[in-house]
Amino acid sequence: MIRPAVKREKVSAFYLSTVTAAGLIVFLSYLPAVDMPFSLPILLLFMLFLFITEYSAIPVFKSSTTLGFPLVFAMDLFFGIGTALLVYGIVVFAVHASYQRPLRVQLFNPAQLIISYAAARAAAEQLLPMEEVFSYALAEQLVFGLVLTLVFYITNNLLVDAALWIRPQPFKAKEWSSKALVESVGFLLSYSYLCLFFILSAETDTTINFTSFFFFFFPLAAISLIGGSNTRLRKEKSRLQSLIRLKEHYYSRLSDEDWMEGSESMIRELFDFDSLQIWVTEAQEWKRKLSAGLELALTEKEAEQLSILIGEERQAVERTDKSSLKEASYVSNVYRTAVFLPIMNNSRRQGLIVVSFIRNRRVPAAELQMMDALKDQIETAVRDRMYREEADRRVLLEERNRIAREIHDGIAQSVAGAVLKLEAANKHFGQAPQTGHKLVEEVLPELRESLKEIRESIFSLRPDPLESRETADVVREEVKKANERFPELDMQFEGETCTFSLTPHEKKAVYHILREALQNAGKHSRARTVHIRLRERRAGLELTIKDDGSGFSLSEALVKSGSGRHFGISQMHEEAERAGGRLELISEKEEGTTIQLLMPAEEEDVDEGNDCGGSSGPA
Hints:
Layout: H1 2-30, H2 40-55, E1 58-60, E2 63-65, H3 69-79, H4 81-98, H5 103-124, H6 138-166, H7 173-203, H8 210-252, H9 264-268, E3 275-282, E4 285-293, H10 300-310, E5 315-318, H11 325-329, E6 337-345, E7 348-357, H12 365-431, H13 433-460, H14 471-485, E8 490-494, H15 504-523, E9 529-537, E10 540-547, H16 554-562, H17 568-578, E11 582-587, E12 593-600, E13 616-618
Parallel strand pairs: 8-9
Antiparallel strand pairs: 1-2, 3-4, 3-7, 5-6, 6-7, 8-13, 9-10, 10-12, 11-12
């Protein structure tokens, strides 16, 4: 892919040089026709207005065009073609130099415009001599202006299109048709101004003075100034929108392995490039996350070495810069200019962006700023990916601890009790078989219950089923399951669909705390009734579980939790804290237990004292 691009670049360079040389020859052929202007102020006014119209392109659809042609025609008409071409060439060269474009572009553009205007004038003079244009009828003048404008725009577009087709960068048919449409609008505007010029000249005398030229061409310059400012603002707006879309793109795919894929078109709206490479370190390895444009022969090891060589600051190097050849040699002998942007994270090298160009060029300050903005976006995304991965690891660790606590509190204790009974049964089978059989019959239901709990634990390891369900539905279903596990309990549930929505993480906390509370009520409290209430309050969503069981001493329970013999209370408190909620537990021996969980909400989300629906009854 690189070799054809290199060949096309050589052909493109030859074409630009040929057109530049042809333009110089055309200009030199008209150089003897350059005379001293009859009015220097008017000529300076023309130069000023021409610079404004060429510098400030007016917006057309999603592109822009310049309106300097009517001014060139007026200069030719009153000062001669030699002076007009001289001023045209100087002004266009100055405009492209002010944009810091490559020298070959600075020379090519005035050259092709000189060729285009000379060809247009030669074609128009086949109809009317330029010097006698005011002596003819208005209709003939309009035809003359039409031929002059049409040939100028056709020749200009053919020369520019050829350069765009030949260059290494792709020039698609859709881009060509869009460009042709924009230039057609430019042609119509320029010809309309020429028509207005001929009409006003036919109705008035042809006395030439500074004031008449100023008032006639001032609207053209004003339109260009306003339109040019609009174009620049629109371009900056487009760049900002591209930055926003880039951020949204990266963050929407932050958990994907190929999270940078698909961002090439948005990056191209920020700045131009021939090749773009983005390298990021993941798990201590350098990985190429994006490769756009022409191929770049850069290995992982070279990317890592290059990042060390570059340091922490952005660098732009050219092949003509002898001190930078070492850095540029890492890119390729094909590329003549490269910009290196290290991706940093807390003074640590996390990656590298390499922007390369086939041609020698000075990268404009505006493009360098956009490259820095891209670097900042990627640095933020890389940092957030690291934080997210760390958070995922922490959540995984917490989930493992939670499962360990559930097994320790429930399954492990049940199985341990069953083992003790089976050991006792084994001892009794020899001397008292009836007692052994009785113990086995007692153990079997306990083992079945333990098996059920194991299956529930396995189910909880599957993808979270709570995300798409309402909080009230989650609570109601868990109450129903608990009622099946403990049929001797009378479980009452109050609450329906709530207007306050919880996040999946908050729903999970509600689910686990409710499950643990109902498990304790069914296994340990000797309660007859458990009342569960879910309602909205001004402060948030409130879940209350109240039983009439034996209760317990909170201080003793905390001591057991701290010694590792009982995890339930600490587990519920940790679940609530991780989800940003608040858990209150009230219990006294023989007085029952009340557990209240409050998940906070924004003030505008809920109303004071609303139950989640209002129905009550058995679950």
